Amino acid sequence: MAATERARRENGRETRRRMLRAASELMAESGVAAVTLSAAAERAGITRRAAYHHFAGREDLLFELRRSLNEKLLKSVQGDHEFGEPRDLLLAMAEQDDSALRFHVYEMLNHGLRRSALFKSVVSQLTATQKAGKIKPEVDIEMFAVVAVSAAFFGATVAMTLAKTPKERHTIAERFSKELRQTIQRGCYL
Hints:
This protein is about 75% helix and about 0% strand. The chain has 9 helices and no strands. It folds into 2 domains: about 1-55, Orthogonal Bundle (Arc Repressor Mutant, subunit A), CATH 1.10.10; about 65-190, Tetracycline Repressor, domain 2.
């Protein structure tokens, strides 16, 4: 009985993952207006009934999509170590698929940079780095975060458009981040 229950729960988690992936793809292709439970269910290859079992409605699906994508990116940026530098953000973003990158850009454009969980995290981490004496005291941390996030989005976009494989994407992101780091160090870091 316990094995059957575990299998049922895992199937449910997989259905939710498929729905969120489908919603992410729909948003990346056609914007938030294209994301409906029916469209995501069709794309994911599940019934509308199953979709409504996992999500109360469209807003619930969108909320979970935002939460999961932000959580995934923040976890990949922060990991178990100190943020350190904007390079971590760039590499994390370059390793995501293009629908996730488009989603984050869409979120920032529609809700504002200051309301973005990603931006808030970068500001917080850079503030801590400045307090630790690793960033010059006169550096405007919020503007530094704007530059870091903008550069990371641009670098990840460049990596995604120039590379054919994940390995190439990582290599391009590394090259871009090296130049970004050198530029920032000359003007911001002690």
